[in-house]
Amino acid sequence: MATDSERNERMEKIVSLCKRKGFIFQSAEIYGGLNGCWDYGPLGAELKRNLRNYWWQKNVTERDDIVGLDGSILNHQDMLKASGHVGGFSDPMVDCRTCKARFRADQLGEAKCGEKPSKSPLENGCDLTEPREFNLMFQTWMGASRDETSVAYLRPETAQSIFVQFKNVCDQTGERVKIPFGIAQIGKAFRNEINPRNFTFRSREFEQMEIEYFCRAQDGLRLTDEWLETRIRFYEAIGIPRDKLHILDVPDGERAHYSSKTYDIEYDFPFGVQELEGVAYRTDHDLKAHSEAVGKPQEYIDQAAGEKFIPHVVEPSAGCDRTVLAILCEAYDEETITDEKGKEETRTVMRFDPKMAPIKCAVFPLLKNKPELVEQAKAIKAQLQPLMNVTYDETGAVGRRYRRQDEIGTPFCVTVDFDTIGENGPDLEGTVTVRERDSMAQERVKITELAGYLAERLR
Ligand code: ATP
User: Fold this and answer.
1) Mapping DSSP to helix (H, G, I), strand (E, B) and coil, where does residue 326 land?
2) Which of 33, 365, 407, 418 could form a disulfide with 26 if both were Cys (CB 3.0 to 4.6 A apart)?
3) What's the CATH architecture for 359-458?
4) What is the CA(419)–ligand 1 centre distance, in A?
5) pLDDT tens readout for residues 22-70
6) In the structure, which protein residues have their CB atom closer than 6 angstroms to any atom of ligand 1?
7) Dist. CA 127–CA 240, nearest whole Å
8) d(Cα 386, Cα 222) in Å, to the nearest integer?
């Protein structure tokens, strides 16, 4: 079992690697940073895209019973009044009369107070006010006038646009959506969190990957259990093993009032076991609330059975940024190896599942001042480029280039050497060395077979 200080140190190394290698930067860093907002750099953008694409592939493309939606980020105030967000989407907060900081009243133990040395407000004996409710939504105004009628909100979750488009989706997609069926969405959500913290874990702007799976009331609980298992298998498939996940069966009193079953899927982050995703049985609460608000039943019509009803819904709601963070934490590894000269060194390696790796393959010429090697390496890069994200590197010793790719988790490195161009005889001409990241094992592969060789191993 790692100690707290080992876990802190590990997290610091992950955060520093993310910045150094261009995975994640603080938003507006040169202006002192925008608290709770993050920019994904070149590698982070690829990693996040791989996650989004895989989630979409598994939950929409490969399923007959789920369709996609891409709703607007600006939400109608009446829609969020009906959903309960305007009146009730709040956290309890307290202020410290001494240091003037504001904390979430239910997370005082984890918060850090402004006094030095920084302790939790409880340890520091902060002079706290009584808790007050603080609405987490970002409010704005649409159009030229700023009054009550022009108020709109940045959406606090993607789910609500799915509920309010439910009837349109049913009417327009006909045969494809027969209950049970789902509507899936990936997109930004915004919450004015009182204490953003733990790197990207609790941000003010983040992305969700949500499914609303509509069903009959009698199937709700069973489908909640089925979705839980489906989602755990998804995490395993992207490189997060089951034994690092914890399932919390959220007890009565802690669930949303309308939910009769909620599981939180939690991951063992270096800063503690924390939620990645909620799988919630939301009953018919949302569609009913919108039906009442607009005065029209948001119902499902089963033509064959001659039935009309407001369906129940199971919602697997995952955080894209939190999952990216879990992937980064899970992938980070350090090992001691002996280099070619017999010297021990630490190898930092991001052991990404190949599907998630931002760059799939790096191509090197053995020497950069030998034009035949450079030309051949660049030709291989160009040949692979339409098939996968590939990079070219000619600077420094090959050993150092391997280390650089290990640090960003590139599964394969391809080196073009003198054998490739036939300088050592015809036997190995037209072949390259392929080196695998985790085992560091090297294999000779024909250039003509390289694309197939890599594709098979990246799958
Ligand atoms: P938490 O209890 O951590 O505040 P929540 O239960 O309010 O989260 P949900 O409303 O269920 O979260 O949102 C679904 C998912 O959206 C969460 O499981 C999480 O992955 C993601 N998410 C929610 N809030 C944030 C945030 N502030 N930053 C990053 N991701 C978030």
Assistant:
1) helix
2) 33
3) 3-Layer(aba) Sandwich (3.40)
4) 54
5) 999 999 999 999 999 999 999 999 999 999 999 999 999 999 999 999 9
6) 157, 191, 193, 202-203, 206, 208, 275-278, 317-319, 321-322
7) 42
8) 43
